[in-house]
Amino acid sequence: MLGSRIAIVGVGQVGAAAAYAIILGSIATELLLVDDNVSLRDGQVCDLSDVAYSCNSRTRVRAASHHEAGQCDIIVITAGSRHTIGQTNLEYAYRNISIVKTIVDAMTPFKSDAVLLVVSNPVDLLTSLALQLSKLPPSQVLGSGTYLDSMRIRGMLADKIGVAAKSIDLFVLGVQGESQVTAWSAATIGGVPINESLSKEDVINRSDLSNECKHRSQSIVRAKGATPFGIGSVVSSICCAIIQDKGTVHPISHFQPTLGCCFSLPVVLGKKGVTRKVQMPLSFEEDAQITDSATALKAMIDQVNNSN
Fold first, then answer.
1. What is the pLDDT of the chain when averaged over all its residues?
2. Cα 172 from chain centre
3. Could you give phi then psi for residue 222, rounded to 5 degrees?
4. Is 247 annotated as a binding residue?
5. Which of 194, 191, 159 is nearest to 283 (CA)?
6. 305 a known binding residue?
7. Were both Cys, which of 13, 75, 76, 202 would link to 198 (CB 3.0–4.6 Å)?
8. Percent of the chain having pLDDT more than 90?
9. What pLDDT does residue 196 have?
């Protein structure tokens, strides 16, 4: 952790929640906050500094420029517009594409070993474009992807069957959103395949659980405008794995050369970002669903590139 620095670009609800979690965990020596809204940024710096003081965190918080952010060990992009009523998915995507392009351009050139973590939505599309724009190696450009969905469905399953969530290995993979895929075929409980470990009393409707997991973020956003705490904790966990070179496995969005875009599959995370990919045995149907959604994503990326 010695001398480690994390920057968060965009300090609204999600950025502030991520910063709060990072401070509580003392994950970095210094946390830099960046936002075009200088008043908001400075207010968050003061408020979050109080958190650092009160919990005796080793993380110190300060305001910074985009250029300074680009020289940090990890740069987290949470900036983006909200999906407003009446706005099409395409309009929403293009608005956030413009925002992320502006941010990446302002931070370039990056420190050569910097890890760029995209949280803004649509996360896989923006991660793919950030990789193109940043000129960083593919292993150093990541998206939060389906990490939160994977943690969520493990918790939902744990509540239903009375098993601790940490004893369940179950991943949500692919392009985050409507086409994401729950990898039930590879799920285990305590290392035992799920089909062998569940009793008749533990019968669950897997499709219903997957759909509930998929749409829970939408219901939270309808109720309170954003999902800051869940994604904030995920960002903190990813940053911790990188800064501390943990070598732990996480389902995050990263570049898939065979399909030419970024989406979520399990990887090992360390100081240099993705240190190794994990081959997960999926069913034919799961693999086909992931490929179909990635193909559609690549078509969207090509459309964006051709429009510029």
1. 94
2. 13
3. -60, -35
4. no
5. 194
6. no
7. 202
8. 85
9. 87
Tens of pLDDT along 106-115? 999 999 999 9
Contact 66, 107 (CB under 8 A): yes
**Rounded to an integer, what distance in angstroms lies between the CA atom of residue 175 and that of residue 84?**
22
Q: What is the pLDDT of residue 81?
A: 75
Question: Is 306 assigned a ligand-binding role in the annotation?
Answer: no
141 a known binding residue? no
DSSP strand pairing (261-270 vs 273-277): antiparallel
Length of the chain: 308
Pick the CATH number of 5-143 from 3.30.750.24, 3.40.50.720, 3.40.630.30, 1.10.260.40: 3.40.50.720
Q: Dig out the tokens for 269 from the structure.
A: 């995370």
Q: Is 10 a known ligand-binding residue?
A: yes
- The CATH architecture annotation of domain 147-307 reads Alpha-Beta Complex (3.90)
> Is 3 annotated as contributing to ligand binding?
no
* 38 known ligand binder: no
What is the H or E stretch that residue 140 is in?
Answer: none
DSSP state letter for 120: S
Q: What is the pLDDT of residues 175-221, one digit of tens each?
A: 999 999 999 999 999 999 998 888 766 678 899 999 999 999 989 98
Q: Is the peptide bond before 109 cis (omega within 30 degrees of 0)?
A: yes
Q: pTM of the entire structure?
A: 0.95
